[in-house]
């Protein structure tokens, strides 16, 4: 527990920096799969839909 992954631009990382946060630079850049998930049985909000639409622009699904 207490684990998570965030995708942040390196230039923005200083805003979110905390003592237990580890930074792993993707150098050279690496192609990653990103999965968006929600709790089963919950309604999708407008914000969730807008975010998913934004993240999926140009994606291969």
Topology:
Blueprint: H1 13-16, H2 46-56
Shape: extended
Report the structural category.
mainly alpha
Count of DSSP H/I helices:
2
**Distance separating the two termini:** 30 Å
The helix/strand series, from N terminus to C terminus, equals HH
* Cα-atom radius of gyration: 15 Å
Q: How many extended strands?
A: 0
Proportion in β-strands: under 5%
Mean pLDDT rating: 76
The main sheet comes to: none
Identify low-pLDDT runs.
Answer: none
**Roughly what percent helix?**
10-25%
Provide a descriptive summary of the structure in words.
- This protein is 25% helix and 0% strand.
- By secondary structure, it is mostly helical.
- It is extended.
- The chain starts with 12 loop residues before the first helix and ends in a 5-residue tail after the last helix.
Give a concise summary.
The protein is an all-alpha fold and 61 residues long. It has two helices and no strands. The radius of gyration is 15 Å and the shape is extended.
């Amino acid at each position: 527990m207490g684990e998570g992954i965030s995708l942040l631009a390196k230039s923005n990382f200083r805003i979110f920096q905390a003592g237990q946060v580890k930074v792993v630079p993707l150098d050279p850049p690496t192609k990653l799969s990103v999965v968006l998930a929600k709790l089963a049985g919950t309604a999708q909000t407008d914000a969730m839909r807008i975010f998913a639409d934004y993240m999926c622009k140009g994606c291969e699904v």
